[in-house]
Amino acid sequence: MTISRIWSKYFMTFGEYCGPMARSGSISATRTRLVEEHGVNRMQKTWVVQCPIARTPQRGLKPKDLIGVAWILAMALQLDGWYLRSDIIWYKPNCQPESVKDRVTVSHEYIFMLSKSENYYFDQESIKERTTDGKSLKNKRTVWQINTEPCKEAHFAVFPRALVHPCILAGSPQGGLVLDPFFGSGTVGVVAIETGRRCVGVELKSDYIDIAKQRLLTATPTLDLDFAAGSQTATRHEPYITPSLGF
Questions:
Q1: Which domain CATH number covers 101?
Q2: Could you tell me if residue 216 is inside a domain?
Q3: pLDDT computed for residue 6 by the predictor
Q4: Which of 74, 95, 150, 229 is 20 to 30 A from 117, alpha carbon to alpha carbon?
């Protein structure tokens, strides 16, 4: 289970988990560990109070049950006052193979778009997709086909920049501020610089901070930015904004 990023105020993506964790009270232990590592106390409070599975996992889950962490968290955030506006599927054509024999291989993760109020900034035009005949544009759909991409500086999985681009373009204005409270290797910061936004990143692990510094210092704004989701490609022209980096 991975709770990963928040972009442009209200985009969040994370994977799913199933397996031996469903056999005992380790759901609560994992939730507590996430809180200790990431400081998401409000999530912990809502989850404990509102989710019967989190309180009594032995009654709610059987061995091999899919836990549904993504939707548990999404509904907990709703109960905590957030507006759940969209659920998006990140389909990964080059997903990691699995040796399982009694279920299909997981090739997707969830992205939830949330807001703190009924009215919020959202630039639909900036992320529109080409129609099949390529003659016009249409609203971006909820299944995003994007390959994972390696990061030579990091040995762990990082977000592909093509996944971050539409979140930042739609969720923040030119020169706007993007917050990533789980900064990791700094991919969100890199894309923020490339698209002419500012970014604040929060990261606890010094190794990740060093990687992020290295990547951010080599990132430059792009005048003609192309980002692709599967076979769909959109073009965005961004003005140059000199980045200001502080560590």
A1: 3.40.50.150
A2: yes
A3: 41
A4: 229
Q: What is the pTM of this model?
A: 0.70
pLDDT of residue 63: 85
Single-letter amino acid code for the residue at 47: W
Strands 83-91 and 129-130: unpaired
Contact (CB, 8 A) for 50 and 82: no
Whole-Å CA distances, 180 to 20, 59, 78, 224: 31, 36, 20, 24
Whether 201 maps to a domain, the answer reads yes
Could you give the residue ranges of the DSSP H alpha helices within 63-160? 69-79
* All residues at 6 or more sequence positions from 76 whose CB lies less than 8 Å from its CB, including other chains: 43, 46, 47, 50, 51
pLDDT tens-place string over residues 13-26 = 555 444 333 333 44
Tokens 């900036």 found at? 126
- Is residue 224 in some structural domain? yes
In this structure, the strands spanning 143-145 and 83-91 are parallel
Mean pLDDT over 22-42 rounds to: 47
114 within some domain: yes
* pLDDT tens digits for range 93-128: 999 899 999 999 999 999 999 999 999 999 999 999
Number of domains in the chain: 1
What's the domain range around 137? 3-16+68-237
DSSP calls for 177-232: EEEESS-TT-HHHHHHHHTT-EEEE----HHHHHHHHHHHHH----SEEEEEETTE
